[in-house]
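Board notes (copied after class):
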Amino acid sequence: MSPARGRSASRTPPGQPHEGAQPPVEKAADAPHYKGHRTRLRERFAEAGDQGLPDYELLELVLFRSIPQRDVKPLAKALIARFGSFAEVLGARPERLTEIEGIGEATAIDLKIVEASARRIARGAIGDRPVLGSWKDVLDYCRTAMAFADREQFRILFLDKRNFLIADEVQSSGTVDHTPVYPREVVKRALELSASALILVHNHPSGDPTPSSADIRMTNELVSIGKSLGISLHDHIIVGKKGHSSFRGLNLI
């Protein structure tokens, strides 16, 4: 049968827009509800920085980039509920972050990148001047680097004769309440780097920075070994969520 005169021989499949039709315009009411929230939160941050933002909202701003097509407020609140604070979320190990439903490996890595960035900025404040002349910056760096980690870490700042930083190394990592430290290995590494002085730093994930009897014994042993080789121990700092303690400040060295 011949096609009817005046009509096109082709027909548009059911459910498809006619050729030349304009795509539907997304109305404000049709847009996902979280888009407006994201815009408002970004505007608040642009105007006043992080002042006045609770931890979960600052975390939302970070998650916006990692998870662009989802309302991340419930996810940010779940992370804070699990780990306690913005800093503790960043300090959590990736395998623990991915225990939260909605946090994949890529998002966990993004959070660790933010943590590494903060640590790099804090470390920059002590890299170009004598460490003992910028003690507040040293403490800020130590807290940024370790205070909110969920396992004990033992870090050493190696200094030259002018008390400039030669190296910053994590010597060991342990459990939630212990990390192995071998004073002779510490001194051996100091000799390899030609360091003249050391600052020891470790964290207490419990939050309480009070030195333990084991901390005191290990420190005294290291002081004794180092002294015989001309290596000074300036301080041993313990950091925790509730603050820090200094062995020198406590007259323990």
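Comment from the instructor: The first helix runs from residue 33 to 48. Confidence is low (pLDDT under 50) at residues 1-31.
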